[in-house]
Design a protein that fits this description.
Layout: E1 13-16, H1 18-22, E2 30-33, H2 35-42, H3 47-64, E3 74-78, H4 87-98, E4 119-120, E5 129-133, E6 139-144, H5 153-164, H6 169-189, E7 197-201
């Protein structure tokens, strides 16, 4: 798979998944996730996918500090409904990283490792998402605002031509390059920008 070079420059995150350890899927349950994993899950790279990945990356780091975040041990609540806007796309990425799932999630083994009921929507929250450690050791509200990183004027002009099928091959290619350049800026130039990625410990 050939993809933009900047994908590899986006920091990954290492987690420990007790279920993966128990079932022998990963030594000591250690799993590494990267932005490319989120892209493969979604099937594309866009500001929404990038924001979901990086916001969760930052939230888990804030919740666990120097310790490895534990996959399957964080509850996720969304303020929006699952069918509202891009919430479903964001939830897929967040679920991949945290292991949190809704009614269709893993039911557990003898009362252990259950992942169901850790993902909910339509909650009364001050920001978009709440990440809560199940051990009671922390909770954080978070939101992403990728709109603070505007698209280039050229990309804005090319988009309707590409969507309508009027663009030629060179224009389509240029649109894709400009689209990914905006994603790169969101992740690498604005990853620490508090106006783009908001985190509040509660």
């Amino acid at each position: 798979m050939k993809y933009p070079d900047f994908f590899d420059a986006v920091p990954g995150i290492r987690l420990r998944d007790p279920l993966a350890s128990f079932l022998g899927a990963a030594e000591d349950g250690i799993i590494d996730y990267h932005y490319l994993d989120a892209v493969k899950l979604a099937g594309h790279s866009c500001p929404t996918v990038a924001s979901a990945y990086w916001l969760t990356h930052q939230a888990l780091r804030a919740l666990y500090g120097e310790d490895l975040p534990e996959r399957g041990a964080v509850r996720i609540d969304f303020a929006a409904g699952i069918s509202d806007g891009v919430t479903g796309i964001v939830a897929n990425v967040v679920s991949m990283l945290t292991g949190a799932a809704g009614d269709g999630g893993f039911k557990g083994l003898a009362g252990r490792f259950e992942r169901r009921h850790l993902l909910s929507f339509g909650a009364d929250l001050p920001l978009e998402i709440r990440y809560t450690r199940l051990d009671g050791q922390g909770q954080i509200d978070a939101a992403a605002n990728p709109g603070r990183v505007p698209a280039s004027p050229e990309m804005v002009l090319l988009m309707p031509r590409c969507i309508s099928g009027m663009a030629n091959a060179a224009e389509v290619q240029q649109f894709g390059l400009l689209w990914q350049e905006r994603v790169r800026r969101i992740l690498l130039d604005h990853g620490g920008d508090a106006e783009v990625f908001m985190l509040r410990l509660t």
